[in-house]
Design a protein that fits this description.
Catalytic activity: Acts on substrates that are at least partially unfolded. The cleavage site P1 residue is normally between a pair of hydrophobic residues, such as Val-|-Val
Protein name: Probable periplasmic serine endoprotease DegP-like
CATH architecture of the largest domain: Beta Barrel
Organism: Kiritimatiella glycovorans
Distance between the termini: 42 Å
Enzyme class: hydrolase
CATH topology of the largest domain: Thrombin, subunit H
Helix content: 10-25%
Structural class: alpha+beta
Binding site for substrate: 58, 117, 219-221
Strand order of the largest sheet: 1-2-3-6-5-4
Shape: globular
Length: 477
């Protein structure tokens, strides 16, 4: 059974509050308006909580234990033996880890959307319904690149939430977050849409988050973000916090992105993505002026991979992509998502600016394979660090004073406020090493970054006007 959500009263109340100053100035009417506004939120929340569930997942985790020398060996070893004697093999220990979060039912027979970090690699998943009953759930699939996961319980005529259109929401619109923060089920908080299309957050590979100030805390992960019609517009996923708790900045995966992932998980059990084969960067004011553009818009192709869909279509380095299938390209994040979520084999049309002339190019997208995924992940890491690099040419070396070095990559751009920016890396600095490995060019730099993904830490050796220094950067803060 599907709920029919109450849809019109709240919008009308907001209009009255904003557009009728006489109501605000009339003390007798103000309490009534507030009561009706509160009642509107209550009706949406009461209809929603039946379909929101508490999710608990258990997995086995193996942890390497620290090694300490045996006390007797320490005191009685031979003085001719090396300190500590023979090297001991590291020991590992397995233990059960329990995670928890939220989810919401989307079909009457028991499909439930949640976050991948809540259920990924789980050996058992338990879903608690509003009435307290517990059901075992099956993991259908978890897509770590978008933080969307799908689980299923056996059910019939279950309460469900309607999926809305996340593209249609507007900044400033009221939203409600529902979930189980800290295990406190049926928790509802209200706020507004603070921003749309947030990317480069370092949370997932494919990001286009809805930002909200509705209170989201640990345990809210996987719960729904509802619009004033009671429809799901996002999956609550992460918060920005210096304390580990709510600070007024939360992020939700747009439901339109989740719909695509959900359908593939149901039909295929995995997510297939497409690949164009270009390295891109945003067009800022300086680049726009350099390329003779009237305004800074679109994205710039900095490299075309040989044999890729882009190469076969005739795209070139220096092309500026302005439209994707007739839709304006606003930023790198939205473009990457558009390409990735378009089925492989689809022919797309791009409108580009090439040397000041407008041109339309058709490209047939290829399937994103593991090798290309690794390259795409590296681009995301570079994006996460907030830098763009380029080859050190003899002319640049002479201009920047690096003639004595003859190797490395030059920082071409640094995003203000990024990890690299906060550690003092600036445009024109020279990166000589990544994780103690010499860097001869951009290829070496990206290869070394790929090798850093598991550790999550990158150690750069950077040359600047004040000398050379090591700079440690975390891939995730």
């Amino acid at each position: 059974m599907k709920f029919t959500f109450w849809k019109s009263t709240l919008a009308g109340l907001m209009t009255l509050c904003l557009a009728a100053p006489t109501a605000i100035s009339a003390p007798a009417e103000s309490p009534d308006l507030l009561r009706e506004t509160g009642a509107a939120f209550s009706r949406i929340a009461e209809d929603a909580v039946d379909a929101v569930v508490f999710v608990q997942a258990e997995r086995t985790v193996e942890v390497n234990m620290p090694q300490f020398p045996e006390p007797f060996e320490f005191f009685f070893r031979s003085p001719f033996e090396g300190r500590g004697g023979p090297q001991q093999q590291p020991r590992s220990r397995e233990y059960r880890q329990r995670g928890q979060g939220s989810g919401f039912i989307i079909t009457e027979d028991g499909y439930i959307l949640t976050n991948s970090h809540v259920v990924k690699d789980a050996e058992s998943i338990t879903v608690t319904m509003r009435d307290g009953s517990e059901l075992e759930a099956e993991l259908i699939g978890a897509d770590t690149k978008t933080e969307v996961a799908l689980i299923k319980v056996d059910g019939k005529d279950l309460p469900v939430l309607e999926l809305g259109d996340s593209d249609a929401i507007r900044i400033g619109e009221w939203v409600l977050a529902v979930g189980s923060p800290f295990g406190l089920t049926e928790t509802v908080t209200a706020g507004i849409v603070s921003a749309k299309g947030r990317s480069n957050m370092g949370i997932t590979d494919y990001e286009y988050f809805i930002q909200t100030d509705a209170a989201i805390n640990p345990g809210n992960s996987g719960g729904p973000l509802l619009n004033i019609d009671g429809e799901v517009v996002g999956i609550n996923t992460a918060i920005y916090s210096r304390s580990g708790g709510y600070m007024g900045i939360g992020f939700a995966v747009p439901i339109n992105m989740a719909k695509i992932v959900k359908q593939q998980l149901i039909e295929e059990g995995e997510v297939t993505r497409s690949y164009l084969g270009v390295y891109i960067q945003p067009v800022d004011e300086t680049l726009a002026e350099s390329f003779g553009l009237d305004e800074a818009r679109g994205i710039l192709i900095s490299q075309v991979e040989e044999g890729s869909a882009a190469d076969e279509a005739g795209l070139e380095q220096g092309d500026i992509i302005l439209e994707f299938n007739g839709r304006s390209v606003e930023d790198m994040g939205s473009f990457r998502n558009e390409v990735a979520t378009t089925p492989p084999g689809t022919t797309i049309e791009l409108r580009i600016n090439r040397d000041g002339r407008m041109k339309k190019v058709k490209a047939t997208l290829q399937r994103l394979e593991e090798e290309e995924m690794a390259a795409a992940d590296t681009e995301q890491m570079v994006e996460d660090l907030g830098i763009a690099v380029t080859e050190l040419t003899p002319e640049m070396a002479e201009e920047l004073g690096y003639e004595d070095l003859g190797r490395g990559v030059v920082v071409e751009r640094v995003a203000q406020g990024s990890r690299a920016w906060r550690h003092g890396i600036r445009r024109g600095h020279l990166i000589l090493e990544v994780n103690r490995q010499p860097v001869e060019g951009v290829g070496d730099f990206k290869k070394a970054l790929r090798q850093s993904e598991e550790s999550g830490l990158v150690l750069l050796l950077v040359r600047g006007p004040r000398g050379t220094r090591y700079v440690p950067l975390k891939l995730e803060d």
